Amino acid sequence: MTETARIVFTPSGRQGEVERGTTILDAARELGVDLDTVCGGRGICGRCQVVPESGDFAKHGIVSSETHVSPPGPSETSEYRGRRPLGSERHRLGCHASIEGDVVIDVPDESQVHRQVVRKRLDVPDIEIDPVVRLYFTAVEAQELETPRSELDLLRDALAAEWELDGLVAPLAVVREIQAILTKGREITVAIRDGSEIVAAWAGFHDTVHGVAIDVGSTTVAGHLLDLTTGEALASSGLMNPQIRFGEDLMSRVSYVMMNPGGEADLTSAIQEALDTLIVQLATEAGIDPHNILEIVLVGNPIMHHLFLGLDAVPLGGAPFALATDGAVEVRAPFMGITSCRDITRVYVLPCIAGHVGADTAGAILSERPDEADDIHLIVDVGTNAEIVLGNREELLAASSPTGPAFEGAQITSGQRATVGAIERVRIDPETLEPRFKVIGADAWSDEPEFLHQTKDITITGICGSGIIEIVAEMMLAGIISADGVVDGTLADRSTRIVADDRTFKYLVHDGVPDIWVTQNDIRAIQLAKAALYAGVKLLMDRRGIDHVDTIRLAGAFGSHIDPVYAIALGLVPDCDLDHVTSAGNAAGTGAVLALLSAAARGDIEALVPTITKVETATEAKFQEHFVDAMAIPHATAEYPHLSGALALPERRFANAAAAGGGGQGGGRRRRRRAAAEN
Q1: What's the gap between Cα 482 and its chain centre?
Q2: CA 78 to each of CA 48, 75, 83: distance values in angstroms, whole numbers, following the listed order
Q3: What is the Cα–Cα distance from 480 to 520, expressed in whole angstroms?
């Protein structure tokens, strides 16, 4: 009998049983994993590099080890011919390394054909530039034999006389710079932080100094490099969070630490190395020396916050979700494992709000400033753990809801992240039940003549988050699913796209290789995710004593690509004037940029965060009630006057009478949707 082994690929999560001795490349092909190769497995191109992982991966039920892969042979060592150098001693060639036991294999971003599209963008409002680091040029008096003084004292005198800067201090590393410069000449430019500390020096006149703002997300890490003197953005880049190989969602990473003593060090070093890599990447793109970067600002959710600071994140995995610290943190770059900049470069981390509402939400608040508004604002960062902020200048409330990874493609049959070839927009004809869609990498819809030409080099591989939201909402609008999310099997007589799937039915979105389906289980996963988010919003509305919101801002890399109409149609957020439901872009990253460019902004957010009312959804009695009602699409009882102006909502029809709650019927007879919803 042939022996088999179980293999799990990250970050895709694809897994299966393969015969022992199968190469990793062949296993990837068999399981539909995105692993690059040009030479066809001859070990020449070096594109199929992977990293076998070691540890107890409880989420996958696997104890993985590097020894469960065949040892490196000459083709991966002394005789290696790959045009792409091996990334490290742990990197293996997928075409030569074979599987000898149960193993978790990480496919690095650079080894994927369809690399992650990091969509977080920079969109900064007008701001008065007031960075904590400023440049000052001065001429220092020459040394006199009769009254010799230290070079540092002479520099202090010059800065006091010319710039009225008193009481300056300088660390030893900068004193060395100052001495070396003034030995050769008497003109010098210094960078001074917070008006009190000399943190860098250059000979002669120097007029640029740089900073980096980074949003450390659980899936992607997005950064921006800026000129601190002008506020100009010089480079923007991003990369996948390497912690994904330890778990796609945050709780999986906490579980990894709990199951693997010392695992927290692996997670911390992985993200810190990624931060250093991203900073070098940004500096290279901008054509500057990383040593000219003197300030770094970071935001992230509480678990990421604790992990990149080297704090224990395990207490955040269960009640009472205690933070190690909720205040702003300031450290030198080497403490964070960032070695590409100067040793004196400072890292500033925005404060956290609560155990599941982190520095990224503080950044979003700093970007959106709901505390300065009269109208009620709702800010939602849609992700594996949705952060919610509600209120205005009178009071702000914050909470998080455990939406899970469904919106990012996990737990969905044909789900995937936002890469080229992913379906991102969907419309379904309510008469024929035929779909049309758009994919990332092409502008045309699938029913347009240009589509085949634009996608001739693109494989349509699955559905990303925005597409998943739209197709479930469209299935509701077309009557394919009932309000309680049940696929109507009687429609199989009308359309071959509705097919029996064991005891339920599924819907065929794309007939190709691979076929792309939406199953009953997929719809349930989306219902659970969106109900958790809506219930969290309703809890905050209850606490504030309101029945509507005036403005909704959808934030985050994913939230910024959701069509507001479909966010409401699915029931992610309450009904609202559609003109007031807009994308906030990467609000967390924007907040980090604001904190980088403005010392006043740092003071504002540090003062504001302690005043925010924190609501813990897990302990609220009404959460379950709101959750049950929100399982319906869009909702069991809520009215949708604004949404009805853009879409013709079908009658609320429940396959299960118990799911109807107290809602009754709503929306009226189905009509053709207005043209605006088709764009």
Answers
A1: 32
A2: 18, 7, 14
A3: 11
Please list, in sequence order, all residues whose beta carbon lies within 8 angstroms of the beta carbon of residue 11, skipping any fewer than 6 positions away: 106, 107, 240, 244, 245, 248, 417
Domain 210-349: CATH superfamily, name plus number: Domain of unknown function (DUF4445) (3.30.420.480)
Q: For tokens 């990369």, what's the residue?
A: 239
Specify the 3-state DSSP secondary structure of 554.
strand
What are the phi and psi torsion angles at 63 (to 5°)? -100, 110
How do residues 184-216 score in pLDDT, each as one tens digit?
A: 999 999 999 999 999 999 999 888 999 999 999
Structure tokens belonging to residue 19: 């015969």
Cβ neighbour number for residue 121 with a 10 Å cutoff:
16
CB neighbour list of residue 480: distance below 8 Å, 6 or more residues apart? 428, 433, 487, 488, 491, 498, 507
CB 284 within 8 A of CB 271: no
**Two structure tokens written together for 317:** 């995995």
Q: Quick check: 347 and 576 in contact, CB under 8 A?
A: no
What Å distances lie between residue 585 and 122, 196, 593, CA to CA?
Answer: 8, 35, 13
In sequence order, what are the residues at sequence separation of 6 or more whose Cβ sits closer than 8 angstroms to the Cβ of residue 268?
Answer: 307, 308, 310, 337
Amino acid sitting at position 497: R
pTM for this prediction: 0.84
Torsion of CA 17, 21, 25, 31, to 10 degrees: -10
Task: Give the pLDDT of residue 115.
Answer: 58
CATH class of 133-203: alpha beta
Q: Could you tell me where in the chain the CATH 3.30.420.480 domains are found?
A: 210-349
Give the whole-angstrom CA distance, residue 388 versus residue 384. 13
- d(Cα 8, Cα 10) in Å, to the nearest integer? 7
The percent helix, strand, coil of the chain (3-state, each to 5) is 35, 25, 45
In order of 323, 403, 645, the CA distances from 313 in angstroms are 8, 20, 46
- CA 562, CA 585: separation in Å to the nearest integer? 11
> Which residue intervals of the chain bear CATH 3.10.20.30?
4-111
pLDDT tens-digit readout, 405-459: 777 777 788 988 788 899 999 999 999 999 999 999 999 999 999 999 999 989 8
3-state secondary structure 206-242: CCCCEEEEEEECCCEEEEEEEECCCCCEEEEEEEECH
C-alpha torsion angle, residues 53, 56, 62, 65 (rounded to 10): 40
- Please provide the size of the chain in residues: 679
CATH of domain 4-111: 3.10.20.30
